[in-house]
Design a protein that fits this description.
With 283 residues, the chain is mainly beta. It folds into two domains: 3-127 and 236-272, no CATH class; 133-234 and 275-282, Immunoglobulin-like (Sandwich). The chain has helices at residues 7-21, 150-162, 238-245, and strands at 35-42, 49-54, 72-77, 80-83, 85-86, 92-94, 107-114, 117-124, 133-134, 138-141, 165-169, 178-184, 205-207, 215-219, 227-236, 261-262, 265-282. Strands 1, 2, 5, 6, 10, 12, 13, 15 and 17 form a nine-stranded mixed beta sheet that branches. A hairpin with a 2-residue loop joins strand 3 and strand 4. The protein starts with 6 loop residues before the first helix and ends with a strand.
Length: 283
């Protein structure tokens, strides 16, 4: 799952929309039945990143929204409907079958019904990232010269970190938005340094901020274990790009934030990627 991409932007659009709807009302008098949709599709990947949750008053200092686990959620592709089911108790929904493909230029409609409200949205899968290349496909971790003392170890670590950057480059002649995900392939954990305890190492995953550039650098020396890693660069479609571009709007002069969800808050968007791999190995 790639849930980290949504958090800051969706929180912003929720706040902005609630602000506009409460200009002449008490901030605590938000419609209790209104909900927030965070729905994302990824070409070639399972449908498992659809989240429904409640709104919350702006007078609350923290996000007090609660997950909604009893909604009726369907997505449609060219007239064929697919019913989603709850993934647990966190408000996420997924499609349990294996007969639904997310492909370039596919058009999807989302429908969410809950509490007497039915929200709808449409999105189209963008073209994939093209021309992705990595500056290195292998990072070698040196044997630390522990017997030579602290200074020697510090120098070896410094040299390793300085040479461990991996630059990802792709084609982006028109300045579209992209984001990068780095995650370990497989579940086996082989810690790089002896003092790291396996139980303390979660499955590594890095998600970047969106960029309109055609390059991004990742410091592989910050990784915690040996093994194979995937770098995926996702092409962002127009709905999410417009939302992200408007995230810094001044709340003293609010305009309606971009959103393609009708009768609810949030966004329904799609991404398409290209993947390259690299290895972290012993020297």
């Amino acid at each position: 799952m790639r849930k980290l991409i949504s958090n800051s932007v969706i929180a912003w659009v929720t706040v902005c929309t609630v602000l506009m709807s409460c200009e002449e009302e008490n901030l605590n008098d938000i419609a209790v039945n209104q909900f927030v949709v965070e729905a994302f599709l990824y070409a070639g990947e399972p449908v498992d990143d659809i989240r429904i949750k409640s709104t919350f008053p702006l007078t609350d200092e923290e996000d007090t929204s609660v997950p909604i686990n009893d909604a009726e959620v369907t997505i449609s592709k060219y007239g064929q409907e697919y019913s989603l089911v709850p993934s647990g108790l966190d408000g996420y929904y997924h499609y349990p079958g294996d007969d639904l493909e997310i492909s370039t230029n596919d058009v999807f409609e989302l429908q969410v019904s809950q509490g007497g409200i039915t929200a709808t949205a449409i999105t189209q899968v963008p073209t994939p990232t093209v021309g992705l290349q990595l500056s290195q496909d292998s990072i070698k971790v040196p044997i630390l010269p522990i017997a030579q003392g602290r200074d020697a170890v510090v120098e070896a670590l410094g040299n390793f970190l300085s040479g461990s950057s991996i630059q990802a480059n792709w084609n982006n002649d028109i300045g579209d938005l992209y984001f990068m995900v780095v995650e370990r392939v497989g579940d086996d954990v082989d810690p790089i340094f002896p003092q790291q305890v396996i139980d303390a190492i979660e499955r590594f995953r890095f998600v970047s901020e969106p960029t309109d550039e055609a390059t991004m650098t990742f410091l592989a020396g910050t990784l915690e274990s040996f093994g194979r890693y995937a770098i995926r660069v996702y092409h962002i479609n127009n709905e999410y790009a417009e939302l992200y571009d408007n995230r810094a709007q001044d709340s003293r002069d609010l305009n309606e934030p971009p959103s393609n969800v009708t009768n609810a808050l949030g966004v329904f968007s799609a991404f398409n990627s290209q993947t390259q791999f690299f290895e972290v190995v012993r020297e």
